[in-house]
Amino acid sequence: MEQHVFQIGPIRPPSEANSLLLRVTENCPWNKCKFCMLYKKNDFHTRPVAEVKKDIDTMANYRDMILAHKDGENWNMPAVQKEYAELPSDEARMCYQMVFTWLTEGDSQAIFLQDANTMVLRTEWLLEIVSYVRERLPEIKRITSYGRANTLAKISEEDYRALRQAGLDRIHSGYESGSDKVLQLICKGTTQEEQIIGGRKVRDAGIELSIYFMPGVGGRELSDDNALETAKVINAVDPDFVRLRTFVLRTGSLMEEVRAAGNYTEETDMEKLLEIRKLIANIDPAKARGRITSDHIINLLQEVSGDMDQDIPWMLSYIDQFLALPELEKRKYQLARRMGFPLDWKQLYRLKESDLAYIEDLAKNTVDEKQWETLLHRYMDRYI
Ligand code: SF4
Q1: Of all atoms in ligand 1, which is nearest to the CA of residue 188?
Q2: CA distance 196 to 153
Q3: Does pLDDT of 1 surpass 90?
Q4: Residue among 177, 191, 186, 189 nearest 257 (CA)
Q5: Architecture in CATH for domain 147-324
C-alpha cells in the first residue's frame, strides 16, 4: 500500500457522527457568516479528484486490512494492535483508527463528504467521486454532503438527477433563517428565494434534504420575522428534516460587532423558546410532512421533536406545559439543562439531591435578570 493517510476535515453534522468522513473540498467558499468561527483563518480549495480517489483507495485498503482480523463476530485484537503500531506515522495511525471505529462502532454503510459546501464542486467531478465511492466501498448505502442554499439553487435539475442516480442520498444545508432581513444581518450570502428554489430542486430529484435553522439569530428586533419567514420556507420546501439550533451569541464572533452597532439584541433563553413556539405554530402540516428535531444540547426543550404533519399540536402543548410551570420550576430546569442535564423537565427529580439543592439555590437567589442570563450563557458557551 503506497499511501497511508487520507485527509480528515474538522466537522460533520451531528447526525453523521457515525459516518466515514471523506474530505472532498477544504474549508468554506463563502466564509463570511457573522456567527461562524469555523474556517475564518483558512482559504477554500477544491481537492483534485485523483487525490480524493487515492484517499478512497486508502480507506478501502485499511478496511480490507482490518476485516482480515475478523473471524465471524470475533476480532483478533492483538493482530489489529500490532498492525496499528507498525504503521509509519501518527497520521496513518489516526486514519487506521478512524476506519476501525467506523467498522466496529459506526455506521459502516454511511459516508459524509466534507467540508462546508461540497456541492460547489463541478457536477462531473462530484459524480466521479460518488461513483468511485460506490465502486471501492460497495458496503456504503448512504452518501451525504453539505451544500449552501445559494449553491443548491444554481445546480440544474438534470445534474441533481444524475447525482441521485450515482448515489448521492442526502444534502445537509445550514439555512439558519428563512427571513431575508435576518440573512442579510448575519451575512449568510443567500436569500429566501434561493433557499426555496434550491430546496425544491433537491427534493424533486429524490435526494433527502436536512435543513438547519437558528431560532434567536435575528435577535429581539427580528424575532417575529425570523419565526414567520422560516416557517414560510419550511412550508414551501417540505424538507425531510428540520433541525433546530437555538442561537447563542459566541464570544469572539463577528456577531459581537453587529450587536455593538446596535443592530442585534440577544433574546433571553425564554424569548428564544417563544420564538421556537411561533415558528412551529406557523408550520402548515398539509405542506410540510418531514420531521422536525431539537437534536442538539443547545436547545432548551430537546423533546420538541416529531413529524410535522402529525405532531405539531403535541409539540405546542408540550412547550405550553413548560411555560405554564411556576417561575422557580422553569428556572430550575433551565439551569439544569444549561449545565448539561440531558432529559426533560419532568425528569428533574432524577438529579442527585445535592445537585438539585445547588440548582434551586442559584435559581432562587440570582434575582437580577441580566445576571441570570449571563449565568445561563456561561454554561451554554461550552456547547457552541
Ligand atoms: S457557509 Fe457555513 S461554514 Fe461557511 S461561513 Fe457560513 S456557516 Fe460557516
Answers
A1: 6
A2: 8
A3: no
A4: 186
A5: 2-Layer Sandwich (3.30)
CA-nearest of 267, 307, 318 to 283 is: 307
- Whether residue 355 is preceded by a cis peptide bond, meaning omega within 30 degrees of 0, is no
**Is 28's C-beta closer than 6 angstroms to any atom of ligand 1?**
yes
174 ligand 1 Cβ < 6 A: yes
Residue nearest to atom 6 of ligand 1 (CA): 33
Pairing between β-strand 168-176 and β-strand 241-244 as defined by DSSP bridges: unpaired
Q: Using one digit for the tens of pLDDT, what is the confidence trace for 343-380?
A: 889 999 999 999 999 999 999 999 899 999 999 999 98
- CATH 3.30.750.200 residue ranges of the chain are 147-324
Q: Which of 26, 32, 33 to mutate to test the pocket of ligand 1 (most atoms within 8 A of CB)?
A: 33
Exposure letters 356-373 (e unless 16+ CB within 10 A, then b) = eeebbeebeebeeeeebb
Q: With 90 as the cut, is the pLDDT of residue 10 above it?
A: no
The SS3 call for residue 355 is helix
Strand order from edge to edge, sheet including 306-307: 20-23, 110-114, 142-146, 168-176, 208-213, 241-244, 291-293, 306-307
> Whose CA is closest to 187, among 30, 27, 39, 41?
30
Question: Cell digits for 312?
Answer: 405539531
Atom of ligand 1 nearest to the CA of 31: 5
